[in-house]
Amino acid sequence: MNIPAPYMLMLGDNKDPLAIKTARGIHYWRPEKCVGQMRLNEDVPSLGLPDMNIDTAIAHGAKTFVLGTANAGGVLAESWIPLIVSAIEKGMHVASGLHQRLTDVPAIVDAAEDAGVELFDLRHSTQKLDVGSGVKRSGKRLLTIGTDCSVGKMFTTLALEDAMKKRALSASFCATGQTGILIEGSGIAIDAVVSDFIAGAVESISPDCAPDHWQLIEGQGSLLNPAFSGVTMGLLHGAQPDVLVLCHEVNRDHIRHMPHVPMPKMEDIMSLALRLGTLTNPNPRFVGVAINTSSLNEEDAINYLKEVGDAFNLPATDPVRFGVENIVDHLVTVFEDNA
């Protein structure tokens, strides 16, 4: 997918701040791509962007109308359809990360055909995918891997890209989820790929590259999540990571949405990932731990991160609070020592 920017972010009508996490992620990491926001009522949280209607957004250069919100089941609300059709009729492309396809709505499809614009169903790649090959690729690869879902894998991967580029290191973000695709403008939503093709899809978004280039692959799910372990396994084998960064949230006591499943220990995820990763890379290693410490005050967070770092002999950080420079320091040192 190659999604034209800049974007107008449609935030929907839900007052829950988590409902607009897709739009929030785009605005945080690629503010230059965002010209404005559309809120369907005043209770919807704001991103701090100018509130705009479709005509105003187009006048400011917006090319794609982005559904930056999510709801239970990922369905397209009936009340949004006339709005989407209006944006299309005025020449805007439309991008959606919902499970329900834009292309399953006849009114939207007919309008897009008449206007000659594209519909981007981010969770549903149309490219032909092969099964994974396991053949070694040139270049270097990093994969973020989590103790659970929603523990900061995308944020950490993007933070690493930003920090590495500031050091003039060659690095690129490889998106595997709908928000990451909108941030990067390309990628494949791995959670919608048929399981046989997950590893091959990851190979396709992180192909052969220059020997000194780092492809930073956004992780999904968790190897010890009863619902999503399969997608994580496919990512691990397709990425062939030279290095991994563990992502975790402090004080989360059970798998998200599964109160009957306790959170796995960090060391269990790490040892399992290394053991399974050797199938496609003979020597994967962890270079850092990224932890969401938002439930702790700053002093306690600093102490907790030191304890984790000492326990694993790795740099540990909260990417939001403290950045990821210590992980990049360690990554550079490891590969200089092995050069």
TrEMBL record:
Residues 48-124 form the D-glutamate N-acetyltransferase-like N-terminal domain. InterPro entries: DgcN-like (IPR011669), DgcN-like_C (IPR035086), DgcN-like_N (IPR035402), P-loop_NTPase (IPR027417). Gene3D superfamilies: NAD(P)-binding Rossmann-like Domain, P-loop containing nucleotide triphosphate hydrolases. Residues 132-328 form the D-glutamate N-acetyltransferase-like C-terminal domain. Pfam families: DUF1611, DUF1611_N. This is N-acetyltransferase DgcN. It comes from Enterovibrio norvegicus. The lineage of its organism: Bacteria, Pseudomonadati, Pseudomonadota, Gammaproteobacteria, Vibrionales.
